[in-house]
Design goal:
The structure is a homodimer. The first copy, chain A, has 3 domains: 44 residues, lambda repressor-like DNA-binding domains (434 Repressor (Amino-terminal Domain), Orthogonal Bundle), CATH 1.10.260; 128 residues, Rossmann fold, CATH 3.40.50; 134 residues, 3-Layer(aba) Sandwich (Rossmann fold), CATH 3.40.50. The first copy, chain A, is built from 13 helices and 12 strands. Chain A has a 6-stranded parallel beta sheet with strand order 2-1-3-4-5-11. In chain A, strand 8, helix 12 and strand 9 form a beta-alpha-beta unit. In chain A, helix 11 packs across helix 12. The longest helix of chain A is centred in the C-terminal third of the chain and has 17 residues. In chain A, 52% of the residues are buried. At the A-B interface, helix 4, helix 5, strand 2, helix 7 and helix 11 of A face helix 4, helix 5, strand 2, helix 7 and helix 11 of B. Chain A binds a DNA duplex through helix 2 and helix 4.
Chain lengths: 335, 335
DNA sequence: ATGAAAGCGCTAACAG
DNA sequence: CTGTTAGCGCTTTCAT
């Protein structure tokens, strides 16, 4: 491995001159500059960022920690954030926590985090207590879950309100027995699904309808396969179901497949609503009606919040919620 | 920021003892150990990985560089790889190159790469010449594209053969005018799309059908929106089209939407084939017929190849190709 | 069982 | 315009 000292020796200058040339700092004679550059090219030298970062005390990089790489929502978020941080001269790297409490705790390992100038954490498995116990010194912004300790910056989406509006839209379209597919968190924590289910309940109650337990379709995983099977079973159990609110678009896609399996027309016989407005949403089933959680808004708010926290560690923590919006397409009937 | 020296002072020991306790190395008395551990907890100390990595000369981390975070295929790949490397005690971080030649070149910045023990690069925009010019010292394994310089390890999928089999399946199902949606790379480089298109051509020729230029539907981006519009236009231009081979499932989903817009029955009037076998493939349009490119195989081969390269930098480069397999579902007719 | 010294590769600060 | 000195926080090596 060739070091800066090797380059310096080969070019007949000091390491400082090499360093200065490479960073365009200090005053370096044009001739010397060229010689150093030539030597760098000849030797194939590249700075050791680990050493540079250690010395400078920063990395010019931020991390996004997501529950799973394998989810369209996070892919989209990561893409947006990469662009946003890029504009600020910061590199974005993505790490996976595994969507479990243990995974998140491990991913939040102080040591790991300290290698970055800032961290965006998309919480899923951790409880409020876990978050409270977190002793992180790296600038950190929490994403996604509804509740977060006041001392953290937090950017969330309007899960409950978006879900309420979505279900209200189903009601307006004429559905009376609306199942919620996704169910609540087993631990009763304020997770995305729990919040969205609360919105479902609120909408039903607001319309004078009963939020019966039988209408709650629990899922082990928020994936199409599980949803497809579960919806088929739910329909078989309760043929009166005439509306489906899926807690995510992925779940909605599975639900649509399950309804198709059962030979039920959408939206004629059963209306379907998703949540997330994934890019493919407009292309499935003629256009999946869903809730736009404000992904662009969230990415910008998160990037701003982290930049702010990085420049001022003592700034007052901010809790921001993106506005959600119902996107009516073809799996629901016009009101 | 609390350092190891701070902890040592507070615990009344030397930094070496702290280091030894933290890494479970060396012989440390139980009493001392407890005292150090207590001090670590009290001070909230966490090792500085940047310093540790500099000293140790490794990071216990590998990077996966993908063209875009925002693509289901790469999300899936990243998930699989994270698990595979996790088993080997290596941390996986994902970076985005931006799917352009410039982006990839920037992402391949020697300096960045050297911060990892190994790198997996999913090539898209770079030409063979670019790859050849690459002077990387970090253990590197190339992924995805068909051609790669012999000196690199390379794991690819059977793009041409998979596409050939897919189109042969369309022919067997009775299609005679089969459009390929995705088109070739403008630069004529051996990209995924070009390879898959070559497979389309081979299948047609093998069946005695003409691979007319009019059957090639070019796309600016391999996304549903673009595909939907392009397919609508193609069908309007040539109503005889009775089969569609989409170069990716994402494109296929858009193509299906376009065919639905045009009121054409799938698979009765037009058969549709995708490529990738994304998880949602089985849930769209009753089940999208597609090509399984062997994602699991690829992830394992890539992880093995990189581990091997990391342990032996001089090992003979290997070029591996995953077997592809047609998955016939409901958007094609049985032969 | 514990500690002192040296140095990983780089850059800030200052000297010339 | 260029070079010297010091040290970022840690681990390796060797001594005690």
């Amino acid at each position: 491995m060739v070091t800066m000292a090797d380059v310096a020796r080969a070019a007949g200058v000091s390491v400082m001159t090499v360093s200065n040339v490479l960073r365009d700092r200090g005053r370096v004679g044009e001739e010397t500059r060229q010689r150093v550059l030539r030597t760098v090219a000849e030797t194939g030298y590249a700075v050791n960022l680990t050493a540079r970062n250690l010395r400078r005390g920063r990395a010019d990089a931020v991390a996004l920690i997501v529950p799973s790489f394998d989810h369209a929502y996070f892919g989209d978020l990561a893409s947006r954030l990469a662009a946003l941080f890029g504009e600020r001269g910061l590199h974005l790297v993505v790490e996976q926590s595994g969507a479990s409490r243990e995974g998140e705790l491990a991913a939040l390992d102080q040591a790991r985090l300290r290698a970055y100038d800032g961290v965006l954490l998309s919480v899923v498995g951790m409880t409020a207590a876990d978050l409270n116990a977190l002793a992180v010194t790296t600038p950190l912004v929490l994403l996604g879950e509804q509740e977060a300790p006041a001392r953290f910056d937090h950017v969330s989406m309007a899960n409950a309100e978006g879900a309420r509006a979505a279900v209200a839209h189903l009601v307006a379209g004429g559905s009376r027995r609306i199942a919620v597919v996704g169910g609540e968190d087993p631990r009763g924590a304020a997770t995305m699904a729990t919040e969205r289910m609360a919105g479902w309940r609120a909408a039903l109650e607001g319309a004078g309808l009963a939020a019966e337990r039988g209408l709650v379709v629990r899922l082990e995983a928020f994936e199409p396969d599980a949803a497809r099977v579960a919806v088929r079973e739910a329909i078989a159990r309760d043929p009166e179901i005439d509306g489906v609110f899926a807690v995510t678009d992925q779940v909605a896609i599975g639900a649509l497949a399950g309804l198709a399996d059962a030979g039920l027309d959408v939206p004629g016989r059963v209306q379907v609503m998703g949540f997330d407005d994934l890019r493919i949403a407009r292309h499935v089933a003629g256009g999946l009606s869903t809730v736009d959680p404000g992904a662009a808004w969230i990415a910008e708010a998160a990037a701003d919040a982290l930049a702010r926290r990085m420049s001022d560690p003592d700034a007052e923590p901010r809790h921001l919620t993106a506005p959600a919006r119902v996107v009516a397409r073809r799996t629901t009937r016009p009101a």
